[in-house]
Amino acid sequence: MDRKKVMKIAVIGVLLLSFCFLITAPIHADVGNSFSGGGGGHSSGGGGGYSHSYGGSGGLSGIFFLSSSPIGIAVLVLLVLYAVYNMRKGKGSANTYTYANPGIKSNEGIFEEEIIARIQEEDPAFSAENFRNYASEVWLTLQEAWEAKDWHKVRPFESNTLFNVHNRQLQEYIDHHKTNYMNMQNVRGITIASYSSDEEHEIVHVKLDASLLDYVVDDDSGKVLEGSKTDYVYRSYNLEFIRKKGIKTKEQEGTAVTNCPNCGAPTTVTSSGQCEYCKSIITNGDFGWVLNRYSPW
C-alpha cells in the first residue's frame, strides 16, 4: 500500500479514537448555553404557545479541556497536521471554504423563494427583506444583552417562556461571577428556511449564519475559562419565530418592535411581557413575530 495512504489511514484512525475525548471538549456557550454540551429540545405546550427546555450550565464546569492534558495536546497537533495536509491537497479548489468556515451549515434542501411565496399567500404585505433585517436585529440584540448581563433588553423580542429560560440561565453566570463575551459578530447570511402553522400560530424558522469571538471569563481573576479572544467561531443558528394565526403585516410597516402594537406607546415591557401603559401582553405573538426558539441549526 502507498506510504501516503498508510499515513492518512493512521491519522484518521487516531482522530476517530480520540473522538471520545473531543465530544466532551469545551464548546463555547453562546446565548442560553445553546452551543454548550447540553444541547436542547422543545415540546409543544398549551395556552401561550410553545414551551422549550434547554440543558443546564454544562459548559461552565466539569469540562475536559484539551489543552490541559498530554492526550489533548497530541490530539490538537494531529488535527492541525491533518488540516494542513488536506488544505494543501485541496489548494485552489472549492473545498478550501469548508476549512475556513467549518461551523457554517449548507442550505441544501431549503427552497426559500417557495417558502416566501407561501407566507405571502396568507400575508401579502409580508416582506422577506424586512423579516431578515428583523431576525438579524434580534440575534445581535440577544448577543449584546447576554454579554451585558441585562436580559430585559430583549424582552420585546422573545416569547414569555423563552425569555424566562434565558433569563434564568444568564443568572447562573451572574451568580458564578462569569461573563460570556461575544465580540466582532458578523451575520454572514440569513435564510427563511421553513413556514408552517397550527391551530393557534404561524411558525417561521430562520437559518442565520454568523462568525464571532466567543469566550467565557472569570470576573474575579480575568482568566479565560472557555473559548478564545482571537479565534473566530463559525455557526449556523436556528431561530424560530411565532405569531398568532391571522395576524397580518401592515402596509409600509417594518417588523421591528418600537411601539406597543396595541396602544402605540413607546415599547417599555415589564418582566411579564406587558406594556406598562395598556397592560397588553405583547410578547406572546398576538401582535407580531416573536422569537420562540434559539438553538444550533
From TrEMBL:
<dbReference type="Pfam" id="PF04280">
    <property type="entry name" value="Tim44"/>
</dbReference>
<feature type="signal peptide">
    <location>
        <begin position="1"/>
        <end position="29"/>
    </location>
</feature>
<keyword id="KW-0732">Signal</keyword>
<keyword id="KW-0812">Transmembrane</keyword>
<feature type="transmembrane region" description="Helical">
    <location>
        <begin position="63"/>
        <end position="85"/>
    </location>
</feature>
<dbReference type="InterPro" id="IPR032710">
    <property type="entry name" value="NTF2-like_dom_sf"/>
</dbReference>
<protein>
    <submittedName>
        <fullName>Tim44-like domain-containing protein</fullName>
    </submittedName>
</protein>
<keyword id="KW-0472">Membrane</keyword>
<feature type="domain" description="Tim44-like">
    <location>
        <begin position="112"/>
        <end position="252"/>
    </location>
</feature>
<dbReference type="InterPro" id="IPR007379">
    <property type="entry name" value="Tim44-like_dom"/>
</dbReference>
<keyword id="KW-1133">Transmembrane helix</keyword>
